[in-house]
């Protein structure tokens, strides 16, 4: 099993070389590079790059933070910076991978209203033919523009990247739609509270603070916090805290040699048995079973 420090940090998709382009964006077809690696890109992460993958044909076994997912076309995968990920593509795969340098990703987020799509790892099946066609068209335009020098190339790439980000953001709009019922000022304030709550989770999840304590630090009641979390993220405040705990547990079980007891202790559980019940309740697997399955997929 790999230790957490053994997960390579790549400069680009499968590479340790430096960024190969003066642009803040890199685009290539998935077969271009994956066929060189026998269609398998082993788990790795990037310190300051964001991936957008469009699978337009074929399939991929996606490993995302220790969990495996089978995706068919047409699907989109988002991989933010520092997210551990790996791919096993089918030989008939087709599609593109667009990689954004962090300054560009941050800029794109700054131009959106509460946009978060490039900051959250995820995958989306493009069930709507219209949505799939719009995203595929934008990806093709990015690819064509990227490959040829032309007047206004940088400006057009920026516009296309922004349009693509907006289309991707729309994929998760349903989970946020109810927030629009609030007025503009309340909506902005609510998003600020939610963002601060997420920062607090990231800072303190290992201590397993109570939702009441977190809400007090945000400056609102726990009932108000839960309302915001359900409107913006579609889950309760406690579910979001537990999601972060579970993600870290999966990382530790997959990428380190820590014992179950050590993982439990590192995540604030007073007894390994409590951790085992928590993990099984959320994954239907005991921690040991989960680890064995991950080893079996190597």
Summarize the structure.
This protein is α+β, with helices and mostly antiparallel strands and 298 residues long. It is 47% helix and 18% strand.
Task: Give structural notes.
- The protein is an alpha+beta fold.
- It folds into 2 domains: 172 residues, Jelly Rolls (Sandwich); 119 residues, Arc Repressor Mutant, subunit A (Orthogonal Bundle), CATH 1.10.10.60.
- 47% of the residues lie in helices and 18% in strands.
- The protein is built from 11 helices and 9 strands.
- The strands form 2 sheets. Strands 1-8-3-6-9 form a 5-stranded antiparallel sheet. A 4-stranded antiparallel sheet has the order 2-7-4-5, with no helix packed on it.
- A hairpin with a 2-residue loop joins strand 4 and strand 5.
- Helix 3 packs antiparallel against helix 4 and helix 5 packs across helix 7.
- The relative contact order is 0.10.
- The N terminus is likely disordered.
């Amino acid at each position: 099993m790999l230790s957490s420090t053994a997960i390579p940090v790549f400069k680009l998709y499968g590479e340790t070389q430096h960024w190969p382009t003066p642009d803040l964006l890199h685009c290539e077809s998935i077969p271009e590079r994956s066929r060189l690696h026998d269609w398998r890109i082993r788990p790795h992460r990037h310190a300051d790059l964001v991936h957008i993958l469009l699978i337009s044909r074929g399939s991929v076994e996606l490993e995302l933070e220790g969990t495996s997912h089978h995706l068919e076309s047409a699907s989109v995968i988002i991989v933010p910076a520092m997210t551990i990920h790996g791919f096993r593509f089918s030989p008939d795969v087709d599609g593109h991978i667009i990689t954004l340098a962090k300054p560009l990703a941050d800029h794109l987020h700054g131009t959106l209203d509460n946009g978060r799509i490039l900051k959250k790892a995820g995958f989306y099946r493009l069930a709507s033919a219209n949505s799939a066609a719009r995203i595929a068209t934008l990806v093709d335009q990015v690819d064509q523009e990227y490959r040829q020098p032309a007047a206004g190339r940088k400006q057009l790439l920026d516009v296309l990247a922004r349009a693509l980000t907006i289309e991707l953001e729309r994929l998760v709009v349903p989970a946020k739609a109810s927030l629009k019922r609030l007025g503009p000022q309340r909506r902005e304030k609510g998003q600020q509270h939610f963002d601060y709550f997420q920062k607090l989770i990231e800072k303190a999840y290992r201590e397993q603070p109570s939702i009441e304590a977190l809400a007090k630090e945000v400056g609102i009641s726990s009932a108000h916090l839960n309302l915001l979390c359900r409107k913006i993220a579609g889950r309760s405040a406690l579910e979001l805290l537990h999601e972060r705990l579970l993600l870290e547990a999966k990382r530790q079980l997959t990428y380190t040699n820590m014992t179950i007891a050590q993982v439990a202790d590192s995540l604030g559980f007073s007894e390994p048995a409590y951790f085992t019940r928590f993990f099984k309740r959320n994954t239907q697997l005991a921690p040991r079973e989960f680890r064995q399955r991950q080893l079996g997929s190597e």
